[in-house]
């Protein structure tokens, strides 16, 4: 006679699978929390972050140079980086879609810092992650599509020139610069001396 698993055995298997899923979920959450904690600690270290990003980009460039391939990945990476650059240089609220002024156009206007559509930290993080993913993809021959790389380089340069020309014309039209140099400060001593000069003398 064949023996069939009892209900207790089936219940034990379900409980075991549930405990495994819970353990995996907790482990994933803990890893994600630690990873986010490390990222948060790097926020104030702007120079060190960009030096690390430059090192990653250099490693990828050396890898592609010695392999002499994966140009289609590099082209896609260049298009993605160009898209990130446009988001970094663009204001969060497009003046064309806003009724009132969102950016100061005169020196006497109230100071309003430039708010980017893509913040600096996300800009850095997206670039670094893109280079890391592209570097890993160079180890899979399926992505090594044979292509004449000067054509891709020419297409990318033309796209870069046209896109940046459009962005610069947009800056000129709405009179903004995609960089904030800090809140304007006024010298109290200078203003007080000016007031003393304007006081009537006896």
Automatic annotation (TrEMBL):
**Which residues, by range, are in coiled-coil regions?**
none
Membrane spanning segments where? 46-66, 72-89, 123-141, 147-164
Its placement in the membrane is given as: Multi-pass membrane protein
Q: What subcellular compartments does it reside in?
A: Membrane
Q: Which residues form the signal peptide?
A: none
> One GO CC term of this entry?
cytoplasm
- Keywords (A to Z) from UniProt: Membrane, Transmembrane, Transmembrane helix
Tell me the InterPro entries matching this sequence. Answer: Rer1
Q: Name one Pfam family in it.
A: Rer1
What the protein does comes down to: Involved in the retrieval of endoplasmic reticulum membrane proteins from the early Golgi compartment.
* Annotated family: Belongs to the RER1 family.
Report what the protein is called.
Protein RER1
Q: Which organism is it from?
A: Theobroma cacao (Cacao)
Q: Which gene encodes it?
A: LOC18611190
